[in-house]
Design goal:
Blueprint: E1 10-11, H1 17-22, E2 26-28, E3 35-39, H2 53-70, E4 77-87, E5 96-106, E6 110-119, E7 122-134, H3 136-151
Antiparallel strand pairs: 1-2, 2-3, 3-5, 4-7, 5-6, 6-7
Length: about 160
């Protein structure tokens, strides 16, 4: 674990091969108070040695989705339908980048939120996401049907 973490941050509560590849990522709190943070590493940079915008877009998707998901009890399952990121500034290796999220609405079908990324007091990006709220029980049959239809040859 990173010894230079701001107070309250711990390793991200959820893991996947993709998150492991771009991490380490850290979080504190949950729901609307959730923050995701990371120290910029060389693997996060573009050819100019600055934080790559694609990394911020990825973390924006994570921060928005996880904050929305954990703002409900039990947590809801979401699928990103739209993500817009505005790059306002930059970050360099060893900078601590931290997100904050503002939930606009968590409805029964759609969820909306904004995220902001700072290095210290300097805002470096903002993002807006729209998510489809998915019922876990309803997902499985659709996934099976989709998988079956992808395997079946087209009808003549």
């Amino acid at each position: 674990m990173d010894a230079n973490l701001p107070a309250g941050f711990e390793p991200l509560f959820r893991r996947s091969p993709f998150l492991d590849a771009i991490g380490p990522l850290y979080n504190k709190d949950s729901g609307a108070a959730m923050a995701i943070g990371f120290h910029v590493q060389e693997k996060h940079t573009n050819a100019r040695g600055l934080l790559h915008g694609g990394v911020l877009a990825t973390v924006a998707d994570i921060a928005l989705g996880y904050a929305l998901s954990t703002s409900a009890t039990p947590p809801v399952s979401l699928i990103t339908t739209s993500l817009t990121v505005d790059f306002i500034g930059g970050a360099k290796i060893d900078d601590w980048v931290e997100s904050s999220v503002e939930i606009q609405k968590l409805g029964s079908r759609l969820a909306f939120a904004n995220a902001y990324f700072n290095v210290g007091e300097l805002r470096i990006a903002s993002a807006r996401g729209v998510f489809l709220v998915v019922e876990i029980a309803a997902r499985a049959p659709r996934r099976e049907t989709l998988t079956r239809s992808l395997r079946s040859p087209p009808s003549p």
